[in-house]
Amino acid sequence: MKAARIIKTKEPLEIKDVGVPKPKNDQVLVRVESAGVCHSDLHLWEGGYAGPQGVFMKVEDRGVKFPLTPGHEIAGTIEEMGESVTGFSKGEKVLVYPWIGEGTCPACRVGEENVCDAPRSLGIYQDGGYSEMVLVPSHKYLVKLQGLDPNSAASLACSGLTAYTAVKKAGAQPGDTLVIVGAGGLGLMAVQIAKSITNARIAIVDIDDKKLAEAKRLGAHEVINSGASDSVKGVKDITNNFGAEAVIDFVNNAKTAPNSLNMLRKRGRLVMVGLFGGSLELNLPLIPLRAFTLTGAYTGKFADLVELVALARMDKIQSVVSRKFTLDQANSALEELKSGKIIGRAVINP
After folding, report:
1. Are 47 and 10 in contact, with CB atoms under 8 Å apart?
2. Where is the Enoyl reductase (ER) domain (predicted)?
3. What is the CATH number assigned to the segment(s) 2-158+300-349?
4. pLDDT tens digits for 199-241?
């Protein structure tokens, strides 16, 4: 089978012929129909993240090994199953939960494999979906699509799941103002999720008017172009100068993080999600004096993905898929994502 693999960071992915894995026990071989192109794939390709004071945080220091087939947003069809698999059948369309843990750490024991102490995530620590087929370690990581389009469903496994977890952590209530920073694939999904599970007033901040227009179409009540105006002032203006009850920062870099903090009202909650890097200098007395809560959100647990797929089946949310690429075009997909040309999500159709 063919796979687009990172052989060496910062160098083009190479299309390789690799062996087809044989599933054993409760393993499942899935034929990939759609693999979402995520910013995390970019970070892998580039070899890491920008840390504080310009220090580069290498993914290899976190246990990532190359060569590697990236891709953790995977939807496809069951090709073959191990002898212990139950509840699924060959040819069935499924979404893969990629955030696999080692199974015994405290997080894994309470169903939060996404924050495992020794993660084994597909497309990051083991080969993923930029391939014609992918081996899933257990059928317990599969969600039945039941009529959902694989292209739209694929991004639910990361973009959708991350947005869902962040919106739940933000805890916005009816009458609250929820600010979403970043109108990329995550931000656009968060707008829809927030609209479907909260009754909050949704404001979104970005520098791209096209993305802001899409956010408005999907349900955002207010849009703020931070390239053309002061985003903090914009939030204060729509909240009678109090600030927002909750802010989700899907960019989370050295520029957006201080602004996100300054958008909060007393008792406000900041959910930090993006991995764009940098550092944040905190005014320490301000945190207790204003009773802020700062928290991080990283993907989500399997149970949340099941809930999210249910929302998609009810047409409460839809993934915005603006570009489709072949496996041979994997490098073009990453380049377009890096240059900001993708609205919503791009997918690779092997």
Report:
1. yes
2. 8-348
3. 3.90.180.10
4. 999 999 999 999 999 999 999 999 999 999 999 999 999 999 9
